[in-house]
């Protein structure tokens, strides 16, 4: 499994692991189901997903799923993932998706996680990060804007769901 660990001193991103399953199930609420998964998870579904994430790391697949861990204890506060094989994305574009568990929302953790994940994406050959979000998901839109993403139009999925696109070129320009 990937041994990647990214930190900004407040959070650390590291690959999801089997012992994250219980915390993930406990953190799943209605907004996470609505905006991310589309249905309630079971322990077996979460276990299978984490195994899939590990396989992606092991085989160099197109998914990089990270747990967002709050320092210093490393408590799982949510997830962020990068995917390069999403329908509609062009070469060098990486989709960024994230979810923060209810107890950790409102602390800027999603923005921190997106920025760390995008830094990793740049080192993995990504040229542009893309956040696709339903317009009604105002919290996710706010994260995209705080992380420096710009509106870039919209697209409708096969099920007719509209997603507004926010993009940011990689690597990030140096900070002044």
TrEMBL record:
Gene3D superfamilies: 3.40.630.30. Residues 11-171 form the N-acetyltransferase domain. Pfam families: Acetyltransf_3. PANTHER family: ACETYLTRANSFERASE (PTHR43441:SF10), RIBOSOMAL-PROTEIN-SERINE ACETYLTRANSFERASE (PTHR43441). This is GNAT family N-acetyltransferase. It comes from Actinomadura violacea. The lineage of its organism: Bacteria, Bacillati, Actinomycetota, Actinomycetes, Streptosporangiales.
């Amino acid at each position: 499994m990937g041994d990647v660990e990214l930190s900004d001193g407040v959070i650390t991103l590291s690959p999801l692991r089997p012992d994250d399953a219980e915390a993930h199930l406990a953190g799943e609420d209605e907004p996470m189901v609505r905006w991310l998964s589309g249905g309630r998870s079971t322990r077996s579904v979460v276990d299978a997903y984490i195994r899939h994430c590990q396989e992606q790391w092991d085989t160099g697949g197109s998914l990089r799923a990270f747990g967002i861990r709050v320092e210093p204890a490393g408590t799982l506060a949510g997830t962020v993932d990068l995917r390069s094989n999403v329908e509609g994305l062009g070469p060098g574009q990486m989709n960024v998706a994230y979810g923060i568990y209810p107890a950790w929302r409102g602390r800027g953790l999603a923005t921190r996680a997106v920025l760390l994940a995008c830094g990793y994406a740049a080192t993995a050959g990504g040229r542009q990060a893309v956040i696709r979000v339903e317009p009604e998901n105002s919290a996710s839109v706010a994260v995209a804007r705080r992380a420096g993403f710009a509106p870039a139009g919209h697209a409708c999925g096969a099920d007719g769901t509209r997603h507004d696109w926010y993009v940011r070129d990689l690597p990030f320009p140096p900070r002044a």
